[in-house]
Structure to design on (652 residues):
């Protein structure tokens, strides 16, 4: 049982600052996904914890003990690499057992290897060399190797990046249970927001070496701290429009492509000046009936995606928006004139200058 | 390959045979010469069929060289022994020094690292004869003239840069993540070096070791200057076959066959390490 604590850690490589005052705590048994676009510093953070780089500044604690400066083998850390990093000259069995032999110095190595490989369904390939394994089996072997020593901290560096789509779905379902078996504090790096949302208890969004938001998956999706985060979560991505909202009769109103849209109740934090209006594609309703609270638009294209249909719309002012509709909803056809609506509480407002969500400042503190 | 026409296959067979004959002929001819007397060899036209004799090998092994002008003492077996000792010791020393150094150059960035690596390579730029003159003076001062250690040391000029630069490339090709993974599993860097890096660079180490062995084995000029008769390798010892009464072609051929054998055996032994593509499939592209 050990808590992982990262205290204002910074790291620079020349002009690049992949870590800029990062602070994050992961409780034992908790899975925190580190999510961010490529080059945002996710891997560097993991490697500092594992001891491949030392931070320039700040401290990293495992179970209250600083591990900065300690050699990797004494940090109590298990890690699964994106490229698997299996030992090519050893069988899968020896790969998995390598951690145990060094730590426990014998013990019931065979029994524990058998147990973990049964759990990961790779018992039948234990005698094979890594080059004889499929990517999925390699990934499971690498996971087994990371898990078998019951490390205090488990670092997973985009472990599903190199496995095929079907296996990725399977693993997304299996992994949370697998990782929660122990009491390790799990840090899970991924570039796929769906994976982060499926696996993690909390998501830490890393942008340019800084933590932009740390919150539960549901909170991040519904209450993104900034327009940048809102754009990272969701497929299709969130629709944006430049607006300058005004308060009228206790309601916040904004003009979108000529239509007056209601954006929810105007509370104390009424926005001043230019804003981004964000509406998720699945919050849009499309119909052929005109009302005064609907944006006139034209359908440019329809992509049926079986579980949903995605419509590319051109609003009256030329802005292109996407709408994701249930497949059984009436969709119309390309080039149809339609009207787009959304519920006032589906609208998110972001300050155009800072990109921060308006009325969400208290949520940032929770990070 | 499978869909090539009959003509194509015949052409390929003929071409391969011609190339094989071109490269193998000198070696086969020398092998045949080693079983003939000088008179048989110098017969014109030469014959493929002859009555084989083991006289050349007997002469080499017994050390008695029979020429028209009488018996000569030669120390071929001693030279062969020297060659084995000198080349093996030189390659072993170069591996002990060069493999860890190659690892350091591959994995760590340190001050003057590239300059040191390049300096070691630059030893190969200078013509050996230029280096030898000052070196022989130093060796006389240091008392290293005509010692096994002195020659093994000077052979480092041949073997060390070769091993360093070849093996370095192999270490650089191993993903550092593999070593990181091994260390996170609870092993020290020393264990990661000996159990992960060295085995994975095995084919490269074998290739570099074999090449430096061949270069040391075939070296002539260092030992010619720095060693006297009882420390000289076969390359220098072969001079003894040029006698007052002519060149002993039969014995030379036998000497070549004998002196090629150790290198050939080593190459055959090292071959399986050379072709073993261990790192295949370890790390995804």
């Amino acid at each position: 049982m050990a808590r992982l604590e990262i205290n204002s850690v910074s790291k620079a490589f020349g002009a690049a600052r992949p870590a800029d005052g990062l602070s994050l705590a992961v409780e034992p048994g908790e899975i925190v996904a580190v999510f961010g676009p490529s080059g945002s510093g996710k891997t560097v953070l993991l490697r500092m914890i594992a001891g491949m780089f030392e931070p320039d500044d700040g401290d990293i604690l495992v179970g209250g003990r600083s591990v900065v400066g300690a050699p990797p083998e004494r940090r109590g850390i298990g890690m699964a690499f994106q490229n698997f990093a299996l030992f090519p000259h050893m069988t899968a069995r020896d790969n998995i057992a390598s951690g145990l032999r060094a730590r426990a110095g014998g013990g019931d190595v065979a029994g524990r290897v058998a147990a973990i490989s049964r759990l990961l369904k790779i018992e039948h390939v234990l005698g094979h060399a890594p080059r004889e394994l499929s990517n999925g089996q390699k990934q499971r072997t690498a996971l087994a190797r990371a898990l078998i020593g019951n490390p205090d901290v488990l670092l997973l560096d985009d472990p599903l990046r190199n496995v095929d789509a079907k296996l990725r779905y399977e693993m997304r379902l299996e992994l949370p249970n697998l990782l929660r078996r122990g009491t390790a504090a799990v840090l899970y790096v991924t570039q796929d927001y769906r994976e982060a949302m499926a696996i993690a208890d909390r998501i830490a969004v890393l942008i340019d070496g800084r933590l932009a938001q740390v919150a539960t998956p549901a909170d991040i999706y519904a209450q993104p701290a900034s327009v940048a985060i809102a754009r990272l979560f969701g497929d299709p991505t969130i629709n944006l429009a430049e607006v300058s909202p005004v308060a009228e009769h206790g309601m916040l109103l904004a003009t979108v492509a000529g239509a007056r849209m209601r954006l929810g109740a105007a509370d104390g934090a009424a926005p001043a000046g230019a804003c981004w209006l964000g509406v998720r594609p699945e919050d849009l309703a499309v119909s052929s009936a005109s009302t005064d609270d609907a944006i006139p638009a034209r359908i440019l294209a329809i992509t049926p995606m079986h579980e949903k249909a995605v419509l590319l719309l051109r609003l009256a002012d030329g802005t292109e928006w996407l709408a994701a509709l249930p497949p059984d909803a009436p969709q119309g056809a390309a080039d149809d004139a339609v009207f787009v609506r959304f519920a006032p509480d589906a609208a998110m407002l972001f300050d155009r200058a800072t990109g921060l969500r308006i009325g969400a400042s208290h949520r940032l503190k929770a990070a | 390959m499978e869909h090539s026409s009959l003509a194509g296959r015949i052409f390929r067979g003929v071409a391969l045979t011609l190339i094989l004959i071109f490269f193998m002929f000198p070696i086969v001819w020398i092998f045949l010469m080693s079983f003939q007397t000088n008179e048989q060899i110098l017969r014109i036209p030469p014959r493929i069929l002859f009555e084989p004799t083991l006289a050349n090998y007997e002469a080499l092994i017994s050390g008695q060289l029979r020429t028209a002008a009488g018996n000569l003492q030669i120390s071929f077996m001693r030279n062969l022994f020297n060659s084995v000792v000198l080349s093996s010791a030189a390659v072993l020393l170069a591996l002990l020094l060069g493999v860890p150094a190659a690892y350091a150059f591959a994995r760590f960035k340190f001050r003057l690292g590239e300059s040191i690596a390049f300096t070691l390579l630059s030893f190969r730029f200078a013509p050996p004869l230029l280096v030898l003159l000052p070196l022989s003076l130093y060796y006389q001062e240091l008392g290293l003239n005509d010692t096994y250690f002195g020659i093994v040391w000077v052979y480092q000029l041949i073997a060390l840069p070769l091993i360093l630069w070849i093996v370095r490339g192999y270490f650089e090709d191993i993903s550092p993540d593999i070593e990181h993974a091994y260390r996170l599993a609870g092993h020290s860097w020393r264990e990661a070096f000996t159990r992960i890096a060295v085995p994975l660079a095995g084919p490269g180490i074998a290739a570099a070791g074999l090449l430096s062995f061949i270069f040391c084995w075939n070296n002539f000029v260092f030992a010619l200057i720095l060693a006297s008769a009882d420390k000289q390798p076969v390359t220098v010892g072969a001079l003894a076959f040029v006698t007052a009464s002519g060149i002993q072609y039969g014995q030379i051929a036998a000497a070549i066959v004998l002196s090629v054998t150790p290198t050939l055996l080593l190459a055959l032994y090292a071959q399986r390490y050379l072709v073993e593509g261990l790192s295949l499939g370890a790390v995804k592209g």
Notes: The longest strand of chain B covers residues 64-67.
